[in-house]
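User: Can you predict the 3D structure for this chain?
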Amino acid sequence: MSFPEKVKIVEVGARDGLQNETQPASVKQRVKLIRQLADAGLKNIEAGSFISPKWVPQMANTAQVLAGLELASGNARYPVLVPNERGMQDALTAGAKDISIFAAASESFSQKNINCSIDESIDRFTEVAELAHARQINMRGYVSCVLGCPYEGDISIATVVKVSKRLIDLGCNEISLGDTIGVGTPLKARAMLTAVADAIGIERVAIHFHDTYGQALANIYACLELGISTIDSSVAGLGGCPYAHGASGNVASEDVIYMLNGMGIETGVDLHKLILAGRSICAQLDTQVRSRVNLASMPSK
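Assistant: Here is the predicted structure, written as structure tokens:
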């Protein structure tokens, strides 16, 4: 057993979290949240996406969000999700320095989510990758449904490996493996991560686990034992998955930090400030905090 000494947290609440909230956050609220997260010590904070507002209205005006952030100063990075060449052009115009692209390990999910096959989805990103390379833009890849699909059930590990390798070949410097509907369990998570890490190197892998069945922290712990050192999480547990009834969203950043602190693993994140950021955005959106650590630390009435 060899745990990492330090873990990089990729905070996804301001994008993957907010885009699944019923109440849209304003540009001002999104900028405030991101600034609070940066003040808490987070260095990698998803800032939004350039997917058409027709499909994801919660992420409209991401260019204005970027304009409200100090992209050229400070140590934090603010990646944005781009779906195609048009989205990439918009991201570049807005001054984005880091982007993310996405594919799925499930053919059914790919067809229902973005109306094309896995191969077609990756081919769409060829122009995006060329622009990123030419402009020296960091590019991250997401793979959805790595531990299960709402339409197909179990997903072949070989398919997860294949999609991950293709995204690396396209130019991604990191692959985030997403348990999109939160059905994974620790041994399955370990087996999947082992296969992907053997193919592309564990230093290029991140884990992105949802907590639908309460397994996210257990799955993260199992992957930490293998040496994983990049974890995606969402402040206050914001978000959910429209394809999984009762999905509770990404694992809460506060819960992950609390666990890592208890294990003596460095993150550079101030848990108290993170807790306050989670409470603030939830109050603004009139939604419930879903982090157990955050709820447990609230003053008793």
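The chain has 13 helices and nine strands. The domain at 8-294 is CATH 3.20.20.70 (TIM Barrel).
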